[in-house]
Amino acid sequence: MTHVLAVPIVVPALAAALLVILHRAPIRVARAVNIAATGVLFVAALAIFALARSGSPPVYRLGNWPAPFGIVLVADQFSALMLLLTASLALAVLLYAVQGWDARGKLFHPLFLFQLMGLNGAFLTGDLFNLFVFFEILLIASYGLALEGLGAERLRATFHYAAINIAAASIFLIAVSLLYAVTGTLNMAHLAERVANVRAEDVALVRTAGLLLLGVFAVKAALFPLYFWLPAAYSHAAAPVAALFAIMTKVGVYAIIRVTTLIYAGGENAVMELTSPWLLPVALITLILGTLGALGAERLAVMTAYLTIASVGTILTGVAVGGGEALAAALYYMAHSTLVIAVLFLVGDLLGRSRGAMGDQLHPGPQFKQAVPLGLAFLFGGATVAGIPPSSGFVGKLMILQSTMDEMMVVVWIVILVTSVLTLVTCSRAGSIVLWNYTEPDQPAHDRPVRSGEWIALAVLAGCSIGLVVFAAPVTRYTGEIGEQLTTPRVYVNAVLGTAQEEFVRPHAMGKIQ
Amino acid sequence: MEVMMAAGIGIMAAGAVYLVLRERSFSVVLGLSLLSTAANLFIFSMGRLRPGVSPIVPAGADGYADPLPQALVLTAIVIGFGMTGFIMALAVRLRHETGTDHIDGVEARPEGMPEHDS
Fold first, then answer.
1. Do A140 and B82 touch (CB under 8 A)?
2. Alpha helices (H) along A184-202
3. Which of A46, A63, A392, B96 would bridge A468 by S-S if both were Cys, CB 3.0 to 4.6 A apart?
4. Dihedral angle at the C-alpha atoms of A425, A427, A428, A434, nearest 10 degrees?
């Protein structure tokens, strides 16, 4: 039954290709195909989730080539969680987009599906070069999505975004080929074995490759000092696109966790020790600067974009602290922040639309209808992202604080608590300006009511976030299992390579072909 | 040969970095294209430089060229080509929309020029 692992990649690819062919068909055809495909993805994600939990990680060998030679798809519990998160987010965002927003761009639906294909592939693949390929797929789809609606500002932001990512892709290639040159493999499980037993003279090369990879993933995850592309790209993208992009920075985080816990997990050379002193300071600085950026934002979308950066900083703080417990906390926070950032992007869009020409700028504007329900939605988003009890943000931050009990405790606690307060100030300020300060009290400027589908999309995302709190015990037990699985990379390696594997000789090491 | 290859890739990458950091979109696109070419050559050389041997060999041959980096480089070229094409189109569109080929879409004022001078 491991064929289900191919579904999250194959189905969106086929559906997207079909929609490109049908791009002249009426929009309702595209909507129907996209909703059907995303629905299938959700079901497949649930199936994979159950499968991953039932035993050792399921492995799907493409073309049935044996493991270190062919490309494998692996769904350990971490991948399964990310797939489920992506599918849930995609369904809610799609529901929002089909309320009329998607009619603006002809290719929204195929690009959306290609983006999902790239995301799912990146989460599933067990091959480092294949990870590069899926990164490029999700990136090129994201360029198209970021451009939806066009305009000089979007073009400018997307040009910067594309340029930095193309440069990062070249560095990714250099890092991957460097690893290949030293170890003679690209399969992540096989790499884990080879890197742990690397010869002493090759340690420097392996470390270089590791730090290059960390740099590349830091660009995707928007870590300090590589996050400057994000606020412009996200805040100028259309709201449903920006909400979908909430998962994109998490792909970078996923890759960082995967590489540090699997490939660089240890061995006698302790390659990991080179990256770990960097990760914690960088994560904390990212968190501080992201929060300050949000505090100084002039628009709601910019504020949410900076909160995305801050959330990445929080997650990576947990990752950098290390150990199963901290990883579990970071994963819980990742699920929470993806959902709540999406909520904030969508609410910001609805508020901006209601305020007419004022848009989502943080200046007093005209009064508008539905201010109360929109205000409550914004209150929910703000309170959750700041971490007011009993929201999911509170549980997530509490878990990260609890798992940091070593000598770094003082710094981590101070930074996380102070940034939480600042986030609260940010959201209160934004909310009171937009919802309580009116310039012309009696003249509603714009009357385009929020459609019920848009409310449902928001309710789905908020419901997931509330679900994280209500079912906190099973969810944390699950992320705890993932944390345990990530700290014992042997499970992953054995699932991919089998327990009794023969030792394959490196091609270059061979003098003569047998 | 190793020295020439290494120096060649290094010089290409250095030129690429210089171009990427310039303020005109055309130089940036050229720089990115050069950078991906340098990366491709790097991948290729990571399979070890072995002239005069073939990747597919009969049993008992005296060594062979590693075929995997060649396959990787092919993939990387295709992806790099697509990305270059895309960013080129983006740069052209940006030039049309903003009327300047400055990467920020706004012409930087020459130094010392007063702010309200048009």
1. yes
2. 188-196
3. A392
4. 140
